[in-house]
Amino acid sequence: MTGTRTGDTPTATGAAPAGPGFLAVDSGGSGLRVVVGTAGRGPLARDASTEPVRTGDRGIDPDHLMAQLLALVQPLTAGAGIGRLETAVVGAAGMASLGDALRAELPGALARELGVRRVALAADAVTAYVGALGPRPGAVVAAGTGLIAVGTDLSGWRRADGWGHLLGDCGSGAWIGRAGLEAALRAYDGRDGGSARLLADAEALFGPAAGLPGRLYPRSDRPAVLASFAPRVGACAADGDPVARTILRAAARHMAEAAAAVCPAAADGVEPLVAVTGGLTRMGDPLLAPLAEELAERLPRARRVPAEGDPLHGAVRMATDLAAGSFTLPGDDALLSVVADARP
To answer: What is the DSSP string of 234-267?
Structure first.
């Protein structure tokens, strides 16, 4: 494996054997994070790689994901005293649209290489949901470089957006960054809707404005590059720049629209919950204040709650439930598939 491993922290070294265990995985654009543990004792050890799993003609590459997992998991299970892994939950970015090969091949590979019997493969939006709300009805907006909203009434799943930076991800970090750079170039041209402050920040970060298209368009990591400008938009909004504040208000509106599209209705007097998770929440009041207003307007009968945890926390929670036989989340062809016995 060529990625950098971080945080190798087996917590049960020297302890009595922990018995059959679980594996929880969060695979995203920044790499791979894994946790091993048991249903009775919870998480016991974790590690990470900074190498993202490759995608190709078949979508997410199951061989590359499996190679990374083996390099990370085998030392963890030995250090944690876990004799064998019986359960695995893998949450992956792109699972909904790029996960066909993963769904076809990964359960069998986990069974052959690690002895895993029960496998759940989930879109990272689902693990983000479970990390934020647990198995309760509601809606979660996962907002980082991209943006997707998922909701459930516990009988099925709904999703909105998550279509990538060219066709959607409205309100995401990439969307905010792109809108900020457009405002910078409007100022450069002398057109209405421009911001001299955003122009100065864009040139400080990327160089002369006239060369921006040539530096941005050929890159394969355009969403991440666009999202890198979102904090500058947030800083300008915090300083009172009216164009930046308008951009963040529009982003908040998009986020609330996505949440409203997937949020279930109240049932049996139980109000649905709404949470927002992901890196954009670190932008603070310049985004979160208008977002609270937009959510209150569009979802007046839902209750806004803070996210309990992140997608890895959600994968751990799902793995614990699956190992204990208390897994109740509904399946979905694209978002969540469960293999009860992965052995060949």
So the answer is: HHHHHTT-HHHHHHHHHHHHHHHHHHHHHPPPPB
